[in-house]
Amino acid sequence: MCGAAANFLLPFGQQTEAFMPFVRQHLEALANFLMPNTCPACGDGLGTSKIPLCWRCLQQLPLTQFEGMQDNPVNRMFFGRLPLEYASAMLFFNAGALAQQLVHQIKYKGNQELGIYMGQLMGQAMQNTAWGNSIDVVVPLPLNAKKLKKRGYNQSMLLCQGIAQILQKPIENVAVVRKVYTQTQTRKTRMQRWSNVAEVFDLKTADILVNKHVLLVDDVVTTGATLDACGQKLVQIPGLRLSVNCLAFASKI
Ligand SMILES: [Zn+2]
Q1: How close is the Cα of 92 to the center of ligand 1, in Å?
Q2: How many Å apart are CA 193 and CA 225, to the nearest integer?
């Protein structure tokens, strides 16, 4: 007798409990049939995989390995500007390539599951490093209220959720806020970008972060201007040590 059929012989309460995995499995198969589960990067079927990215794309992620390389381009970006314990980004971001597709999915296509999963990969890459192990609290680069309402979520918060799950650390998302609605950064020169983000962040509940090693998280680092503006506020908190980690690094060269 198969396991599912044997469940009918159990008392009703136990029967329901034992039957649930069977029901769930079949409901998932049905949902997958009605709404095929596809890889957000290449469109290949994912079947019933719990990972929101196919195996081939996972193998092809353009990993920087900056997590174990202190003298890296993201760290160098902040030299002389912002005192950091460590700065890193997990992927190389190139136009039209895999990392850009993933960021697009997370940021504009509502693929929140992918955001959390990429955060988990970031956490795993930091997990066995001295700097990663000394993180006390994870802080997403804040979105302002208007953009948060429009998008419905903060993509940096999704990354933080994944990182926090792996590192087993709390997330703090009310200590620092973004004050004004900045125009899109895309068409601005480097200098314009810098002046545009200056003074847009404000500290709220700074006490929570006193004497903590804070990991500030964003999706893509390009000039570092926004992270720098937020970081400048955070390092005013007594005893705070700051590190930065991003999903992707877009080189300007
Ligand atoms: Zn794929």
Answers
A1: 17
A2: 7
2, pLDDT greater than 50: no
Q: How far is the CA of 98 from the centre of ligand 1 (A)?
A: 9
With a CB cutoff of 8 Å and minimum separation 6, the contacts of 35 are none
CA of 250 to the centre of ligand 1 (A): 21
Measured in angstroms, how far is the CA atom of residue 155 from the centroid of ligand 1? 21
C-alpha of 34 from chain center? 29
225 vs 230: CA distance, rounded Å: 9
Could you report the per-residue pLDDT of 76-93, keeping only the tens digit for each? Answer: 999 999 999 999 999 999
Domains plus CATH for the chain? 55-182+193-249 (3.40.50.2020)
Q: For the whole model, what pTM was predicted? A: 0.81
Ligand 1 center from residue 171 Cα (angstroms)? 30
CA–centroid distance, residue 36 to ligand 1 (Å)? 14
pLDDT at 12 over 60: no
The Cα 215–Cα 156 span in angstroms is 12
Both tokens assigned to 137 = 């609290």
Q: What are phi and psi of 170, to 5 degrees?
A: -75, 160
Distances (CA, A) of 185 to 53, 91, 92, 193, 225: 29, 21, 20, 6, 10
Note the maximum CA span of the chain: 73
Ligand 1 centroid distance, CA of 1 (Å) = 39
Query: Can you list the positions of beta strands (E) in the chain?
Result: 86-92, 137-140, 176-178, 201-203, 213-221, 241-249
Mean pLDDT over 117-145 rounds to: 96
- Judge whether 183 and 208 are in contact, CB under 8 Å: no
